Amino acid sequence: MRPLADAQREILAAMEQLPAISVPLGECLGLALADDVVASHAVPPFENSAMDGFAVRAADVASAPVTLAVLEDLPAGSVARSVITSGTTIKIMTGAPMPDGADAVVIVEDSESHEDDVVTLLEPALPGDHVRRAGGDIEEGAMVLPAGARLNPMHLGLLASVGVGSPVVVKRPTVAVFSTGDELAPIDAPALRPGTIHDSNRPMLIGALTELGVDVLDLGIVPDDVRLLRSVLGEAASNADAVVTSGGVSMGEYDLVKEALTEVGQVEFWKVAMQPAKPFAFGFLGCTPLFGLPGNPVSVMVAFEQFVRPALLRRMGATRLFRRRTTAVLSTPITSSPEKTVFVRVRAEPGSSGVKVIPFGRQGSNILSALAAADAFAVVPPGVGDVAAGATVEVEWFRSPEARTRQEVLGG
Ligand code: AMP
Ligand code: MG
Question: Is the peptide bond before 97 cis (omega within 30 degrees of 0)?
C-alpha cells in the first residue's frame, strides 16, 4: 500500500501539461494562463475624473466660493476641445479625461449653477482631488497575472482592462467519466428494480469536473463485464485527455476495472494507505491517465479531491493544485487508524478562540448525506491514531460554512 503523499507525488509527476492555445476571453473561465501577462498599456490609460463635477485649477478655487466660466460639458468617452486657464472650468463626468490645464475636480454637490455657462464652486480643492492618475490601477509594463493563474471572473475583467482579448491559456481538457456496476440504475430509469440503486457517483463527478472547468464526456453506466469495460475504456481514451471511473477496483469477484485496464493499458498502482478510498487505481490507457475511483460515494469524493482534482489542475497548467488547509480545534474525539491518512467529515462550529470542527454524521464511506452536509475533511496523518477532543487537527475545506443552508438535511 502506498502512502498517500507518495501516490500524489507519483500521479502529479506523471501529468503532462496540455498544449497552450489562444482562447477568446469569454471562453477562458477556469483555464490557466500559459504565459505571464504584462500590461502593454497603463490602466487607466489616461488621467481622468473620479467624480461628476468641475475640472479646475486648484489655485483658482483656493478662496471658494468662486464663480468660474464653464467652457464646455465633457462626458466620458470624449476629449476636451478647450484648455483650462485661470477663471475657467469644464463640467466633467466620471471617467472623462482631465482637460489640459486642470489639476483638480470640485464635485457637483459643491456647486451652484443658475446659468449654463457660469458656475459657483463652494469648496476649495487641492491639486489631485478627485483625479485618477494614468496607471493608478496598473502601470504600463507591470505584471498583471503570472503563468499558472486560473482565470476567475475578476481575472477576465483584469485582462480585458489591459486589452488582452484572447490570452494564451492551457487547453481545456475533456474528461471521460463512467460508472461501473450491475446494480446501478440511471437516474431516469422508471423505477428501481429489486437489488438496484441509483447511480449517484456519476452526477457527483460530473458536477465536480464541471466546477473544475473541464469538458465532460459522459459515458454512462457500464456493467460488470470485462469485454464491455475494455471497449468503453478504449473509447474513453481515444476521445478524452483523462478518464475517471467509479466502482470495480476493490477485491471482489466483479471488480473488473483493474482487470480490463491491465489488458488495454497499464496499472501503475492501486491501493493507497488512506481511509476512505483505499482501493484506488491509477494507470494509463496509452498516454491518457486513468483514475479508477472506488464505488462508495464518499470514497469517490475523497479520491477525487486528493488525486483527480490536483492531477487535472496540473494538466491544465495551474500552479495552485490543492485546496486550502487550516488548523482547527476538534470538539469531539476521532478514532483513526495509525497506518493510514484518515479523512473525517467535519463541520465548522464558531469557537470561542479560533475555529472548532466537529466530526459530523456517520463516517461510513457510503454515507453520502453526512458528506453533503459537511464543510471540510479533518485530515489525520499516518502515525497519529486516535485524536482527543480539544486537540488541533489539520482541516481541508471544500466549502465555506456560510454556504450551508439552514434546512439542509442532516445525515447519520
Ligand atoms: P465496488 O467498489 O464496485 O464494489 O462498489 C462499492 C460500493 O459502492 C457498492 O456498495 C456499490 O453498490 C456502490 N457503488 C458503486 N458505484 C456506485 C455509484 N455509481 N453510485 C452509488 N453507489 C455506487
Ligand atoms: Mg462494483
Answer: no
In a 3-state reduction of DSSP, which class is residue 311?
A: helix
Checking phi first, is residue 209 left (phi over 0); if not, alpha (psi -120 to 50) or beta? Answer: alpha
Please identify which residue in the block is written with the cell numbers 490645464.
101
Q: Which of 184, 251, 371 for mutating ligand 1's site (highest number of atoms within 8 Å of CB)? A: 184
Does residue 279 have a cis peptide bond before it, meaning omega lies within 30 degrees of 0? no
- In angstroms, the first-to-last Cα distance of the chain is 30
Per-residue pLDDT tens digits for 328-355? 999 999 999 999 999 999 999 877 677 8
Residue 400 — very low, low, confident or very high, per pLDDT cuts 50/70/90? confident
pLDDT for position 407 = 55
Q: What are the CA-CA distances from residue 155 to residues 22, 162, 167, 172 (Å)?
A: 16, 11, 11, 17
d(Cα 108, Cα 86) in Å, to the nearest integer?
Answer: 19
Is the whole model's pTM more than 0.85, yes or no? Answer: yes
The fraction of the chain above a pLDDT of 70, given in percent, is 98
Measured from the CB, is residue 224 less than 6 Å from ligand 1? no
Query: 43: Cβ–Cβ under 8 A, 6 or more apart, which residues?
Result: 135, 136, 137, 138, 161, 162
**300 CB within 6 A, ligand 1:** no
Atom of ligand 1 nearest to the CA of 221: 19
Say whether 44 sits in a helix, a strand or coil. coil
Residue 20 and residue 35 in contact, taking contact as beta carbons nearer than 8 Å: yes
Task: State how far the Cα of 197 lies from the Cα of 255, in Å rounded to an integer.
Answer: 17
